[in-house]
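Retro notes (design track)

What went well: tokenization of the new backbones is finally stable.
What didn't: we kept losing track of which sequence belonged to which structure.
Fix going forward: every design gets posted as structure first, then sequence, in one message. First example under the new rule, 302 residues:
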């Protein structure tokens, strides 16, 4: 069992992600899928475990910037140094010295760099390429991580980018990849978390994204042991919460809803809310059940 480090989520997952299981994380673009996955990998590594993050979208420098910002938030809350300021320090602008020295004087900046360094050898960021990184490469890296001891969490960001040799429709490519990741989880006895993109139908304004709207084939929902889906809270609350509460719009925009749509090892159909802290590329780590009524369509009429 590998705890996610997110209070509330681990409760419903019966302690965390299980070795041998595949978890999918879906959601619209820009809603924090990478932020959540990286924070989860950070939580595992900072707690003494290990994680391998296959990043198809960002280079190592970008991920390091995010990790430092996450740590600043964990140390000092929203008053910690922002991702923007960390990025400025990384780019240098003519400044000399280490990253910690460049962040001297910023709220929790040097301490955040030290925190990342403390688990840096347990959180491996693997730069993956959609034109080259295939299932064989993922297996090879996973075996290498496993040989170093412990049970590493493997994160694939994201599933549709994994290279599949030859010409094939997207549905077929996705089927091969999701089946391969599930086989990897079972054969190596490790937990795997894969980010999944949404299809066009799931990206329609005012519509709640569901598991069946993840881009690819039906194998996604069939092969996965756990399916988590992100939605912007404002988009999925019932209309009366907006009409009769003039402050609701601003408040709901500050949260996402993380829904456990499938959970073979426990409870599913659970909706939890998380507060965004995107200025630090993270979420608050305490999740609560959503109190408001949620709907599939904004046109819902009571």
């Amino acid at each position: 069992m590998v705890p996610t480090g997110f209070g509330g989520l681990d409760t419903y997952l019966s302690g965390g992600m299980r070795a041998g299981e595949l978890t999918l994380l879906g959601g619209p673009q820009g809603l924090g899928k990478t932020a959540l996955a990286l924070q989860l990998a950070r939580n595992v590594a900072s707690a003494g475990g290990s994680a391998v993050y296959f990043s198809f979208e960002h280079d190592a420098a970008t991920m390091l910037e995010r990790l430092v910002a996450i740590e600043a938030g964990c140390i000092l809350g929203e008053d910690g140094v922002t991702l923007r300021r960390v990025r400025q320090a990384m780019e240098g602008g003519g400044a000399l010295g280490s990253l910690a020295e460049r962040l001297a004087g910023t709220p929790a900046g040097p301490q955040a760099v030290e925190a990342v360094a403390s688990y840096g050898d347990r959180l491996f960021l693997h730069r993956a390429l959609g034109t080259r990184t295939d299932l064989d490469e993922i297996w090879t890296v996973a075996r290498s991580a496993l040989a170093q001891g412990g049970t590493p969490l493997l994160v694939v960001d994201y599933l549709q980018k994994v290279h599949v040799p030859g010409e094939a429709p997207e549905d077929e490519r996705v089927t091969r990849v999701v089946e391969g990741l599930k086989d990897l989880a079972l054969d190596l006895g490790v937990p795997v978390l894969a980010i999944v993109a949404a299809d066009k139908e799931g990206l329609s304004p005012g519509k709640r994204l569901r598991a069946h709207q993840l881009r690819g084939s039906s194998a996604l929902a069939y092969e996965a042991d756990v399916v988590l889906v992100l939605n912007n809270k404002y988009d999925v609350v019932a209309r009366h919460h907006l009409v009769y509460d003039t402050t609701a719009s601003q408040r709901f925009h500050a949260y996402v809803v993380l829904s456990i749509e499938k959970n073979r090892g426990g409870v599913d159909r659970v909706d939890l809310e998380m507060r965004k802290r995107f200025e630090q590329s993270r979420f608050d780590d305490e999740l609560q059940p959503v109190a408001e009524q949620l709907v599939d369509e904004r046109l819902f009429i009571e």
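Added context from the reviewer: The longest helix spans residues 170-188.
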